[in-house]
């Protein structure tokens, strides 16, 4: 199990145990984290699963792919550590990952 913490814009924390192989988006949905909409179900075609990877973790997650970058153009308030959470696969190296949920999805 890999620990992932989601922090809402008001500071509310959601600490979850994620299955390796699932995505950060799927883990949020399974744990009822508010603010992750995921309209397209993980197909990288909606940008409503936008998160800010905590700066300390951005090297570990890596940046977005070209396709993801194109979709991020449709997200609200994109920042240097923005990712689409459906494109981050949970793995051992991400144990302890912290992501921040935007105030709203685009
Ligand atoms: S769930 Fe649609 S882009 Fe991630």
From TrEMBL:
Stretch forming the signal peptide: none
Descriptive protein name: 2Fe-2S ferredoxin
InterPro entries listed in its UniProt record: 2Fe-2S_ferredoxin-like_sf (IPR036010), 2Fe-2S_ferredoxin-type (IPR001041), Adrenodoxin-like (IPR001055), Adrenodoxin_Fe-S_BS (IPR018298), Beta-grasp_dom_sf (IPR012675)
GO biological process: P450-containing electron transport chain
Cofactor(s) named in the record: [2Fe-2S] cluster
Pfam families the UniProt entry points to: Fer2
Superkingdom of origin: Bacteria
Family per record: Belongs to the adrenodoxin/putidaredoxin family.
2Fe-2S ferredoxin-type domain span: 2-105
A molecular-function term among this protein's GO annotations: metal ion binding
Organism, scientific name: Devosia geojensis
Keywords noted in UniProt: 2Fe-2S, Iron, Iron-sulfur, Metal-binding
């Amino acid at each position: 199990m890999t620990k992932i913490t989601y922090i809402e814009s008001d500071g509310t924390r959601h600490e979850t145990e994620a299955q390796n192989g699932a995505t950060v988006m799927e883990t949020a949905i399974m744990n009822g984290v508010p603010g992750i909409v995921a309209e397209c179900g993980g197909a990288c075609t909606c940008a409503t699963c936008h998160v800010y990877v905590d700066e300390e973790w951005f090297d570990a997650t890596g940046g977005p792919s070209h396709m993801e970058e194109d979709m991020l153009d449709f997200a609200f308030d994109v920042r240097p550590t923005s990712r689409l959470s459906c494109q981050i696969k949970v793995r051992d190296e991400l144990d302890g990952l912290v992501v921040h949920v935007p105030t709203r999805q685009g």
